[in-house]
Amino acid sequence: MQFANSVSPAILDALYEEALCLTEATRAVFATAQGEREPGVAKSDELSDARITLSCEALRTTTRMMHAMAWLLNFRAYFNDELTAFQLRRFGRLPEPQDVGTAEERAALSADVNAVIDGSCSFYGRLARLDEAFHRGFEAEPPALENLHTRIGRAFAAR
């Protein structure tokens, strides 16, 4: 098994534990914010606009964390020999990050909600850097088929 230099089982376990905690915090803060009037939405005249913003941010943040969890689970499968390096490279890419709301939209949300949003963005950014480093490590090595073509070309050129 070829291990990526950028991700080790120890790093993966720490990231996985952090992701679980952040995912639970995301669930808790948005469940509370959407179920009650005050915790997630600051006082404003446009309560319905704030609720829409809250719902959009909940969806964005939840999606961001689910992409992170899927990425981490793919790496766990790789380190447990359940996925090959080829499968991980092909299917294990981290999607582009979800956008966040504008400053005006975010101002309508509570500090707890904004903290979870910022935490998920920061975590996702760290995973994105690891993902980029992992895939860059494989791009530096020519694929097996390209090596074969090179060897065949050299063999015919030597004649």
Automatic annotation (TrEMBL):
Pfam families in alphabetical order: DUF1465
Record's protein name: DUF1465 family protein
